[in-house]
């Protein structure tokens, strides 16, 4: 993951085609160890590809992955007012006021 994060940081910084040296510099700047094999594997897999297309393809794959706990993954709408139904589903939370208790109410103190 740290190699991927370093790659994305390099691209975000304006370097559209980071090299292994660039990734090693980024990882070294935060004290992380650079694994040459992982860097070369990543660079060979993303060579000649647009990062935004790779991220979009990854999102599509993640949308089909089941999430534990009964949560449903929802893809972001492309454009338009498709987000309006989601806003209607919001539930209002009831505000619960907590009473502040003091040691006098309990009849004893932990430090006596």
From TrEMBL:
GO CC annotations, alphabetized: cytosolic large ribosomal subunit
Does this entry carry the keyword Cell wall biogenesis/degradation? no
Answer yes or no on keyword Magnesium. Answer: no
Positions of region (Disordered): 82-112
- Which Pfam families does the record associate with it? Ribosomal_60s
Gene3D superfamilies attached to this UniProt entry: 1.10.10.1410
Task: Tell me which UniProt keywords the record has, alphabetically.
Answer: Ribonucleoprotein, Ribosomal protein
Superkingdom of origin: Eukaryota
**Basic and acidic residues bias locations:** 87-98
GO MF, one annotated term: structural constituent of ribosome
Query: GO biological process annotations for this chain's record?
Result: cytoplasmic translational elongation
Briefly, what is this protein's role? Plays an important role in the elongation step of protein synthesis.
Family as reported in the entry's similarity comment: Belongs to the eukaryotic ribosomal protein P1/P2 family.
Quaternary organization: P1 and P2 exist as dimers at the large ribosomal subunit.
Q: Which PANTHER family match?
A: 60S ACIDIC RIBOSOMAL PROTEIN FAMILY MEMBER, LARGE RIBOSOMAL SUBUNIT PROTEIN P2
Report what the protein is called.
60S acidic ribosomal protein P2
Which source organism?
A: Anisodus acutangulus
Q: Taxonomic lineage of this organism?
A: Eukaryota, Viridiplantae, Streptophyta, Embryophyta, Tracheophyta
């Amino acid at each position: 993951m740290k190699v991927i994060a370093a790659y994305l940081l390099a691209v975000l910084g304006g370097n559209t085609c980071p090299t292994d040296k660039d990734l090693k510099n980024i990882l070294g700047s935060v004290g992380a160890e650079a694994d040459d094999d992982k860097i070369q594997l990543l660079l060979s897999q993303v060579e000649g590809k647009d990062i935004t297309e790779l991220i979009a393809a990854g999102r599509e794959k993640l949308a089909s992955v089941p999430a534990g706990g009964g949560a449903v993954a929802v893809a972001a709408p492309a454009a338009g007012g498709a987000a309006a139904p989601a806003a209607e589903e919001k539930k209002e939370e009831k505000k619960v006021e907590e009473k502040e208790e003091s040691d006098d109410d309990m009849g004893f103190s932990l430090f006596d």
